[in-house]
Amino acid sequence: MAEYLVRSGHKILAQVGQTQVQDSYRFFYKRLWTLDLPSKNKIMVWRSSRNYLPNYSNLHYRRIMGTATCRRCQEEAKTMEHLFRNCAVVKETWERLDMGWVVSEENTDFIEWLKSFLGTHFLGMCRKFVCALWGIWTFRNKFIHEGERCSGAQIAGFVTNYLKELDGLKESLPATRIQRARWVAPLENED
């Protein structure tokens, strides 16, 4: 009698091409996790790629909220596409970051949009893109939980300053660690 192991099950799925992480996502995840950004930025984008963010559309679907309409613009349901691409404030944010062209793919599924962007742009642009997504999400939360309204220009300024601060941290850290002399207990005098 053969013993079932998770390893053997994964091996069979891999042979028929049905692993949990499909090949189309491999490059996306690899690219995302190699970006020189704090984990909180990358985890937020990973959560959005899995549709795990608590946007109004998801909360409405789970019957937690009554309406899925965006509270900021009152125009359409707050889906991932609206939250990160279609909302007027978000469009202004992308424009101010000199990335207005990223919203031109309005009919593209959000996850496909993420995979496409990270798969076709150099790492510096991907870093700015991911940081912008995180900034948009952060200011969305400030609006929802603290009532703080921000313009797209303010969000773009925050993202730009955040990236400068991260770059400044790299420059200000010493290349080698400074060794300090350790305290040594005095020798006991023998009488």
TrEMBL record:
Residues 25-94 form the Reverse transcriptase zinc-binding domain. It holds the Pfam family zf-RVT. InterPro entries: RVT-Znf. It comes from the Eukaryota. This is Reverse transcriptase zinc-binding domain-containing protein. It comes from Gossypium stocksii.
